[in-house]
Amino acid sequence: MTSSTPADIAARIRPAMTKLYVMYFRIAEQSDLTGPQLSIMARLQAQGPSRISQIAREEGIRMPTASNALHQLEQRELVERIRDEQDRRGVRVKITRLGESELERVGEERTKYLAEMIGTLGEEDLARASELADIINKLADSYGSDLIDTNTG
């Protein structure tokens, strides 16, 4: 019987997660947007215009890193800077229509590649993977909130 402590589970799945992550991004590399850039764009799409400091905090990155990523996205017209309505001296960043369509295109492309990977499973494993999808999403949601809470608290 295998042990099921968090450390034991992590030790069992970490090498496979790393391998799958690397393979997934090699396959999905047709977009020249980085994972962090896509994450920022998805956050802007979900939350609306945000200050750079807020983006950095919520992404768990430093301000210069966020500024650089946003500058690159702005150069490609995927995001734009707008005046902060509450503080006229401040600037917020918002995703553009082009950014939204690029985010959708890349998302569909990557979903297709991930589906191809998952499609190699047999019927029984596919059913188990379907059950695990909810757990993986729950883990991603709770980990993301914990990260945000620690960076703001």
Automatic annotation (TrEMBL):
SUPFAM superfamilies: Winged helix' DNA-binding domain. The keyword Hydrolase does not apply. Coiled coil: none annotated. PANTHER family: MARR FAMILY REGULATORY PROTEIN, TRANSCRIPTIONAL REGULATOR, MARR FAMILY. This is HTH-type transcriptional regulator YusO. InterPro entries: HTH_MarR-typ, MarR/SlyA-like, Tscrpt_reg_MarR-type_CS, WH-like_DNA-bd_sf, WH_DNA-bd_sf. Residues 6-141 form the HTH marR-type domain. GO terms for molecular function: DNA binding; DNA-binding transcription factor activity. The gene is yusO. GO terms for biological process: response to stress. Gene3D superfamilies: Winged helix-like DNA-binding domain superfamily/Winged helix DNA-binding domain (1.10.10.10). Keywords: DNA-binding, Transcription, Transcription regulation. The keyword Transcription applies.
